[in-house]
Design a protein that fits this description.
The structure is a homodimer.
Chain A: H1 30-50, H2 56-63, H3 67-73, H4 77-101, H5 105-121, H6 125-130, H7 139-161, H8 171-181, H9 190-205, H10 208-211
Helix pairs in contact in A: 1-2, 1-4, 4-5, 4-7, 5-7, 5-9
Chain B binds a DNA duplex through helix 1, helix 2 and helix 3.
DNA sequence: TTGCTAAACGGAAAGCAATTCCGTATACTA
DNA sequence: TAGTATACGGAATTGCTTTCCGTTTAGCAA
């Protein structure tokens, strides 16, 4: 779970001067670890209540720590946002593998995409941050793909092999396309997103039979 | 062109001589109008250079006015953003009618969608604002649709009539779907957006022949 | 257990950008 | 040409992020 280390650094390089095994950055003190967890919990709650722009103070209070502590672990407000999102990405990836094991290839693909859609729908404001242009979020899309890409990749591969879906679409493209389609627009809700995703899936089915056999 | 009046009010009504009836807003003073124009120009430039988060001061300086003046015409920073976007929406709508007059229905539809895609691509940060959840932008999607909906509606209608596209998709859905797909993701450029839009169009073609005749 | 020290804490203060206020300047009208 | 509503500029206010630093504490060794 990447989120836990925050971006305080804990840079992988241990610069081995002490002769010990490289990359042993010294373990986090227990209270620090506890506070990081509290902060992530609090942040998730605050983002849900007050949106991504919830003041740092509000989050710190909710977590029962001072703002100084918040900034010790998450040097920039955006680092907290990133950590929270990464946590949820991990959860989604895990759910995917379970789902793929219990369904037919084509069904598994569609089901997972809809599940993914719902997952994104709960993000709302968080997803917006992704597109804010703030360099602080530059790493997120990468993490997104790194984590979910392989999962969707297998689903896709299986569905193509069974002839239900045409080849030629990359996991990355599909991942991002659905993410974008799931952004909240106007007064429409999740229903809109799902309609659009369904349309995209039809696009994938278009011409699939030509490749069969 | 809605942008010019800013949100200071100045509702469309004009006329009304001296002892006029209720709601004669009184025309804008010439220097005020000039400053509003300068501000819109400056804002567009600043957004391009420093992103949507360009400081108000920067924009005011660029326009050669004080921040007080900026806030007089655009009470909230977001009002400026809205005005700039509306301007560009209008331009896109106009281009659409021209295009639709010079092409076959199906071609016109596809061409316009790609043109629309490119238009959105230049917005980048601005588009992100749309999804920020800030209530200040609530009116934008409405304007977006009000202006572009009818245009895309005609294109769509014609393409459906010619049997190239299946019925059942609303202009609104398509408009928003493409807008979302055009959001910048990761390191991909416009090419990505266009690939996805093409996929969506294929989705529309899927099953079209079944409805023919 | 006790003592020591690096690590972590909390919250006051500093830094910044958005927004408001208000005295001054100016475009219109009579 | 004078009078007045409008508009102007920029200093002051406000609210939030981020930094700083004296105080507290977990983890370790004697």
């Amino acid at each position: 779970m990447a989120g836990n280390t925050a971006s305080t650094g804990v840079d992988s390089a241990g610069s081995a001067t002490s002769g010990g095994p490289v990359g042993a950055p010294r373990r986090l003190r227990s209270d620090a670890q506890r506070n990081i967890d509290s902060l992530l919990e609090a942040a998730k709650a605050a983002f849900g209540t007050s949106g991504v722009d919830a003041p740092a103070k509000e989050i710190a209070d909710l977590a029962g720590v001072g703002v100084g502590t918040l900034y010790r672990h998450f040097p920039q407000r955006s680092d907290l946002v990133v950590a929270v999102i990464q946590r949820d990405i991990d959860a989604c990836a895990d759910a995917a593998s379970t789902l793929s094991a219990a369904n037919e290839p084509g069904v598994a693909l569609a089901k997972w995409l809809f599940r993914y859609t719902e997952f994104l729908a709960t993000k709302r404001g968080l997803a917006a941050a992704l597109h804010s242009g703030d360099p602080a979020f530059d790493a997120l899309p990468g993490y997104f793909f790194e984590r979910l890409g392989p999962v969707l990749g297998s689903l896709l591969e299986a569905a193509i092999a069974s002839g239900e879906i045409r080849a030629g679409i990359s996991p990355k493209d599909l991942l991002y396309a659905v993410a974008n389609l799931s952004l909240p627009v106007a007064d429409e809700g999740v229903a809109y997103s799902q309609r659009m995703v369904a349309l995209l899936i039809d696009g994938l089915r278009y011409g699939a039979e030509l490749q069969r056999s």
